[in-house]
């Protein structure tokens, strides 16, 4: 627990997760309104979020270097900070690939995937709000379980989407583009689950 006037690492985790949630919302809204917006502006907006997240992550590490007695193990703070930041990076990667591959329209299942990523990031944000009180929280465990369940939904969606793609298209360029994009989307869900797994491990070590 953070004492009064001390740097609160748990608040920092929540702040980092806000960047992830923001990036997921930008991705979903950009693809949902694809064709009616300026993609380059959205990429710039996304990069600004990613850059701010990097600064926030470095602040956590810099604070930790000066910390005498952190509330949880240093390695756990560094790992959790990095893995939350990895989500933001993974989400940005999707939008970058959309631009690189010169995508002209968005497949319906892609919007299902981006909504799932928003849900996953939101559940993670709620879980991290509870994380500081992990010894007493009545909802943290259920939030972690929900993130794991959403990741499983992501796996199923990825398998079905790729299978459907290869059943309906024989165009090698189209197959290459959407296989890569779907893989990047699935990695976003994996990144969320990785944070949830870290949280569970920290709870178990400190309970």
UniProtKB/TrEMBL annotation:
Q: Which InterPro entries match?
A: PhoU-like_sf (IPR038078), Put_Phosphate_transp_reg (IPR018445), UPF0111_domain (IPR052912)
- Give the transmembrane ranges: none
Pfam families in the record: PhoU_div (PF01865)
Superkingdom of origin: Bacteria
PANTHER family in the cross-refs = UPF0111 PROTEIN YKAA
Family stated for the protein in its record: Belongs to the UPF0111 family.
- From the Swiss-Prot or TrEMBL record, give the protein name: DUF47 family protein
Q: Species name for this entry?
A: Defluviitalea saccharophila
Q: What is the lineage of its organism?
A: Bacteria, Bacillati, Bacillota, Clostridia, Lachnospirales
